[in-house]
Specification:
The protein has eight helices and no strands. The chain is mostly helical and about 210 residues long.
Length: about 210
């Protein structure tokens, strides 16, 4: 979704779509290149099943982007083109920001932030906030609405991190203790088994 968001936002910032948004195109163009490289590296080393899934996602991304681009160029013009491209970019921007909600749910359920890296949450907050301010300064609702949502979501993640960050170490210690107990239990079973085998051998020797 991040790749699709970068492509659509970069398209929205083009001069024939929206005026005075060249910075949007430049930044999201760089983001699209970085995301493309990330997807390539992931596909190179991912298992076969995940490669197939990611391949279909990439097809969906480029089909969606091509559809939006062609409709905006061939069918629409002026404000209608700007509104159509801006709405498409905003929708997928909200989807991109909303994708960590499953992780937020996991953090609340487990009371642990081990699945929610701090710097990722911080970058979501900073990215959403900076684009929110940029959209407000340019009076562009297609930028400040979706990125305002992203800023709030990033702030929520940081709040949860502050609340549950001390629980991660306790959980790790509990898991280590459980693993240690399991290892000791396994060792005890092995020792009992060896003792029984020794007794059987001794009984057989007595018979002989």
């Amino acid at each position: 979704m991040t790749l699709l968001n970068c492509l659509l936002s970069g398209w929205y910032g083009l001069p024939f779509v929206s005026e005075n948004n060249a910075l949007v195109t430049v930044i999201n163009g760089v983001g699209a290149v970085i995301e493309g490289l990330y997807v390539m590296v992931f596909v190179m080393y991912a298992p076969k099943k995940e490669k197939r899934f990611v391949g279909w996602l990439v097809v969906f991304v480029f089909v969606t982007f091509a559809t939006v681009a062609l409709v905006s160029v061939l069918v629409l013009a002026g404000d209608m083109r700007r509104c159509f491209c801006g709405f498409a970019a905003a929708v997928f921007s909200v989807i991109m920001y909303a994708s960590p909600l499953s992780i937020v749910r996991t953090v609340i359920r487990t009371k642990s932030v081990e699945f929610m890296p701090f710097f990722l949450s911080l970058m979501v907050f900073l990215c959403g906030t900076s684009w929110f301010i940029f959209g407000l300064l340019g009076n562009d609702p297609f930028l400040y609405v979706c990125n305002g949502f992203g800023s709030l979501l990033g702030a929520l993640q940081l709040i949860l991190y502050a609340i549950y960050k001390d629980n991660a170490g306790n959980k790790d210690e509990k898991q280590a203790a459980e693993e240690g107990g399991s290892a000791k239990g396994t060792g005890g079973v092995d020792e009992n088994k060896q003792a029984e085998e020794g007794n059987l051998t001794a009984a057989e020797n007595d018979k002989v």
